[in-house]
Amino acid sequence: MQRLFRDAHAAKAHVMFSPDILGALFGQNALAMAGPPPLL
Question: Which of 1, 8, 27, 40 has CA 20 to 30 A from 18's CA?
Fold first, then answer.
């Protein structure tokens, strides 16, 4: 149970699961703007 909690917590903290960052990246892509490097 503790391992599942740690895995879920680590996944939540991962940058690619952040809606704020993903929204900005998708918006920049939709508007054909230069974004950050792909390995953020």
Answer: 1
Q: Are 40 and 20 contacting, i.e. CB atoms less than 8 angstroms apart? A: no
Residue 25 CB contacts under 8 Å (≥ 6 apart), including other chains: 35, 36
- How many domains does one find in the chain? 1
Separation CA 25–CA 19 (nearest Å): 10
39 in a structural domain: no
- Distance (Å, rounded) from C-alpha 33 to C-alpha 27? 8
Residue 7 in domain: yes
Instruction: Convert the pLDDT of each residue in 23-40 to its tens digit.
Output: 888 888 889 888 776 655
